[in-house]
Amino acid sequence: MPSDCAIILAAGEGQRMGSDVPKVLCEVLFKPMIGWVIGACQDAKIGDRCVVVGFKSEQVVDFLGDDAKTVFQDKRRGTAHAVLCAKSFLREHINANVFVCCGDSPFLDGKTIISALDMHKSNGAAVTVITANLENPKGYGRIVRTGGNISKIVEEKDSNEQERKIHEVNSGAYWFCVKDLLDVLEHIKPINNQNEYYLTDAIALILARKKTATAYLSENPLVAMGANDRLNLFKLNEIYRKILIERFMNHGVEFLSMDGIIISPDVKIGTGTKILPGTILKGKTCVGKNCVIGPNSLIEDSKIGDETLVNSSQIYQSVVDNNVKIGPFCHIRPNSRISHHVKIGDFVEVKNSKIGAGTSISHLTYVGDSDVGKNVNFGCGVVTINYDGVNKNRCKIKDGAFIGCNTNLVAPVAVGKNGYTGAGSTITKDVPDYALGIERGKQVNVAEFSKSKLAGRKLKVQD
Length: 463
Description:
Blueprint: E1 5-10, E2 27-28, E3 31-32, H1 33-43, E4 48-53, H2 57-64, E5 69-72, H3 79-84, H4 87-92, E6 97-102, H5 110-122, E7 127-133, E8 142-146, E9 149-154, E10 168-177, H6 178-185, H7 201-208, E11 213-217, H8 230-249, E12 254-255, E13 262-263, E14 268-269, E15 274-275, E16 280-282, E17 286-287, E18 292-293, E19 298-300, E20 303-304, E21 309-310, E22 314-316, E23 319-320, E24 325-326, E25 331-332, E26 337-338, E27 343-344, E28 348-351, E29 354-355, E30 360-361, E31 365-368, E32 370-372, E33 377-378, E34 383-385, E35 395-397, E36 402-403, E37 408-410, E38 413-415, E39 420-421, E40 426-427, E41 436-437, H9 449-453
Parallel strand pairs: 1-4, 1-6, 4-5, 7-11, 12-15, 13-16, 14-17, 15-18, 16-19, 17-20, 18-21, 19-22, 20-23, 21-24, 22-25, 23-26, 24-27, 25-28, 26-29, 27-30, 28-31, 29-32, 30-33, 32-35, 33-36, 34-37, 35-38, 36-39, 37-40, 39-41
Antiparallel strand pairs: 2-3, 6-10, 7-10, 8-9
């Protein structure tokens, strides 16, 4: 059987967005709208996809990577003109069906796409339009039916008063039989107020050829929603933010409040976990069971184990194991691995490092480019000095080591098993197993120093 395919229209500039990026790259819950559409096509098992690009096309191409082929639309002259730009792609799938949709329709879902295709095939249709019933259909093309079947789609700008009362609207997504689409595509004329080539006009041309046109009314009214300006984009974010939080609640995740909580659509959260106000979970973050995340924490593209606490801290592209306590005010930078039962306290930064099980980094410490063993204790104010101005070097701290307060470890350097460093030391040579490394200047006390310095000065009386 020929492989069904998809054409995604993504050439628009979106001037009302006031953005330096193409409209389809504007984000809903930190995910570009076209990323949502690609994901829906993947869920519907549509493997061969072509994206029509235009305004700042290189940005869309970079985002897509290997997820789709691209064709360029040099002049934006309507949706039919955009599809025509992918004519060669259509010919490659001449015996298949093609799903056509807009790249700024983030709430399209795989279930709707598959269900519409099933209707399309069962009716032997040349075209199937995906529709939705909206309480307020203003701004959308209306679906006009005759005897229950679709007879035409009328854009609001071209509609009459009676047509504007219709609540069933065009989602902008269609299934076409490729042969039938190619048969009418070049016959579409720009006979409308915008002087553009509308893909919706393909319906009338298909019907005129005595072909079948059907409409699939989606159970998901959000499929028709897009964004043309920042206000609409904000509304999309708010709508789906609440939908996702409620979905997590139904799967055993606890929320005391929705205030300031933003969760990306690809995030996973285990049962029994509590998400506190001000928490932001981005990308493909995965949070385990029975955790407490927040308040005011940000986690991006990271994996968090079970029964872990992240309090007022930020974690990026890292792995945190079970039973870890982080925060407040910690920064876990990319490529870090925090093992189980680690404690990382206030004002600690960890970067590109492995922290062994049971280690304690309590406060005011920087651990960068380091391999830290099990049950290590860091005193206050420790710094791993990992950059010599040219190269990044690593520190190695073995199991059971005790790093005294205000120790500077100048990489590359190692502290051996159960090794100690004296407080205030700058360690530039390896400390052997079980040894104490001390590097301090000799203390000198200058007698009567303050008497001469403060001579003649009247001191303030303090309570």
